[in-house]
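Query structure, 634 tokens:
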């Protein structure tokens, strides 16, 4: 039951919707007048029964009526009827219901917010064995846990970067309750009995849907009570929230996550700096929320029961035109995180029953005529990979990301880290550029993805770093399809080696017992993209695995060629200059430390050969010219 504190204020009996507050004082007066003018329209019995028969869906006008303009008796009878409580339940739990209503009135709820709270908080009141005290205590405890997880999620690591730990546990802040037509606190939904298991979490989230769309070039903003006027809501020109709500309701969800309503949006800069909530400027609130909310948006689509996809803009009809437009859903970087398999996707903006048929519609992508099915086929595999423990394959993902457009330069970096299943994610900062974001946070990429870059990416990054720049990643050359390609993968059952000494301030990769050929003479062959590698008196042919791959500057020098597993077909070799030999220490799988000799290697490129088996038995005694070394790639 609700409590009363020393100031005679009613404290929340359970996680409540965001209490209505207005972003501007000038807006407040206008809204109050509008609400008072709608109060005479309030429910007659016939209207109430009609709403109940329609599934308990409020009209916008009814949702806007302030609770303070209605008597306690009217609120009691109307809300209990809408929630579907039996008369015996209302009598048995009357004090609980009255205390909740007292909270609604004292905190300036409108009828939409009160209904949103009641239909969750009272949902199980008809169950005779339902223990309100226990359930609400658990509910509030869960809400506190969610708050603590979010508060403690961001930390600064040893490099000074702000990271999100356990990022795939982060939940959304808000959700749109379609029936009450109010954006509410997502924590409210944890009272629900029905929930779904979220990939990689081992926990359960409440049931909801999500909307995937791209922002159009003609977005306008509207101020609306749906989100309690917390920020202006961007919508494509000609689209209104109520029409969108009606379309979504016909598909069946009660709760929907939609970014323009559930992710804090921007006021214009001058306004955001002068407006405050709890004495905090709104632009600061947005910046702080986006640090964690934007990088983890993909969680929402992984957890959603279904995703509604709008190809041509939010709420707009599907069209076969404009598929090459930088603003189209097919071209946006953020929508890569939002892709689900087709059995968990509805296509919005089409008549019911035609959602699958449109996949056969033809349009133009990259100057070529294709079906919509063909246009989205490359990313459907990415959708499957995104749900796997290892995330997406690096080459396919970067090629797809490079072909898409983003408003902020860091958006692609954030999307890439999420889809690669990094165990920590960089916080989002729209004020830094993509190169800085990539360089500062490269160290949090999964070790297996770094292995892919080391052995499969064709170039060194800069003189100072072995890994590519962001510009180079986005220009990753196309693979030569005349050859088979198997990405170099770190074995799942193999422990990641740990180098204890020497310590390096720069980003590096340490591999113990990697196969290598030392003192190999590499020079350019007569054929394009081919090289001759002389090992002793034997010469072997190597070649570039990528089209348009820039040549390796060999200067007929000796190099060290390394490979992770020479017995695996079609792997790349990383070509390195040997810089030094050092003594070091490493920690083995059993936790013991041992002294090692370390070869410091500088990557210059990658090559391939079809002669790996010959190299294993090159020596006359049947031995291999390859040897296992402890390598530090810098």
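Result returned for the query:
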């Amino acid at each position: 039951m609700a409590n009363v504190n020393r100031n005679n204020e009613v404290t929340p009996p359970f996680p409540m919707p965001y209490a209505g507050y207005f972003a501007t004082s000038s807006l407040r007066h206008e809204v109050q007048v509008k609400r008072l003018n709608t109060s005479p329209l309030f429910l007659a019995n016939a209207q109430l029964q009609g709403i109940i028969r329609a599934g308990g869906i409020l009209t916008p006008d009814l949702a806007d009526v302030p609770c303070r303009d209605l008597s306690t008796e009217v609120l009691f009878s109307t809300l209990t009827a809408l929630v579907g409580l039996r008369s015996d339940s209302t009598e048995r739990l009357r004090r609980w219901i009255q205390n909740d209503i007292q909270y609604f009135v004292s905190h300036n709820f409108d009828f939409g917010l009160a209904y949103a709270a009641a239909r969750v908080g009272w949902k199980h009141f008809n169950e005779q064995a339902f223990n309100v005290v226990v359930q609400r205590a658990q509910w509030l405890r869960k809400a506190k846990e969610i708050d603590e997880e979010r508060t403690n999620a961001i930390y600064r690591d040893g490099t000074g970067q702000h990271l999100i730990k356990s990022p795939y546990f982060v939940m959304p802040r808000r959700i749109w309750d379609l029936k009450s037509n109010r954006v509410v606190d997502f924590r409210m939904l944890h009272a629900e009995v029905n929930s779904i298991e979220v990939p990689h979490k081992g926990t359960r989230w409440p049931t909801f849907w999500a909307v995937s769309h791209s922002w159009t070039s003609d977005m306008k903003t509207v101020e609306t009570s749906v989100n309690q006027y917390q920020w202006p809501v961007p919508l494509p020109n000609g689209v209104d929230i109520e029409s969108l709500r009606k379309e979504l309701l016909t598909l069946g969800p009660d709760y929907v996550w939609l970014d323009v309503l559930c992710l804090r949006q921007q006021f214009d800069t001058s306004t955001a700096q002068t407006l405050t909530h709890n004495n905090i400027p709104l632009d600061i609130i947005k910046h702080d929320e986006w640090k964690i909310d934007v990088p983890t948006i993909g969680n929402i689509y992984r957890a959603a029961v279904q995703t509604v996809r709008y190809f041509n803009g939010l709420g707009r009809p599907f069209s076969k035109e404009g598929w090459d437009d930088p603003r189209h859903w097919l071209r946006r970087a953020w929508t890569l995180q939002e892709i689900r398999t087709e059995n968990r996707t509805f296509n919005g903006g089409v008549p019911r029953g035609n959602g699958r048929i449109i996949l056969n519609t033809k349009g133009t992508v990259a100057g070529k005529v294709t079906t919509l099915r063909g246009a989205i086929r490359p990313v459907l595999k990415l959708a499957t990979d995104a749900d796997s423990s290892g995330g997406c394959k690096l080459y396919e993902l970067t090629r797809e990301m490079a072909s898409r457009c983003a408003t902020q330069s860091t958006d692609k970096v954030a999307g890439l880290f999420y889809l690669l299943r990094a165990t920590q994610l960089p916080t989002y900062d729209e004020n830094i550029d993509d190169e800085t974001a990539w360089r500062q946070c490269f160290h949090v990429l999964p070790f297996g993805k770094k292995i892919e870059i080391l052995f499969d990416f064709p170039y060194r990054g800069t003189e100072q770093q072995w890994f590519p720049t962001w510009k180079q990643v986005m220009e990753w050359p196309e693979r030569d399809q005349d050859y088979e390609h198997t990405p170099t993968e770190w074995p799942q059952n193999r422990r990641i080696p740990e180098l204890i000494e020497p310590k390096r301030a720069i980003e590096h990769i340490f591999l113990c017992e990697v196969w290598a050929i030392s003192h190999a003479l590499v020079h350019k062959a007569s054929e394009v993209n081919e090289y001759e590698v002389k090992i002793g008196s034997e010469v072997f042919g190597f070649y570039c695995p990528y089209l348009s791959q820039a040549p390796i500057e060999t200067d007929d020098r000796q190099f060290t060629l390394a490979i992770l597993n020479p017995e695996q077909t079609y792997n790349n070799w990383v070509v390195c200059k040997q810089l030094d030999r050092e003594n070091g220490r490493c920690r083995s799988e059993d936790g013991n430390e041992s002294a090692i000799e370390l070869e410091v290697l500088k990557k210059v490129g990658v090559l391939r050969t079809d002669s790996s088996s010959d190299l294993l038995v090159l020596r006359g005694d049947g031995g291999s010219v390859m040897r296992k070394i402890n390598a530090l790639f810098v």
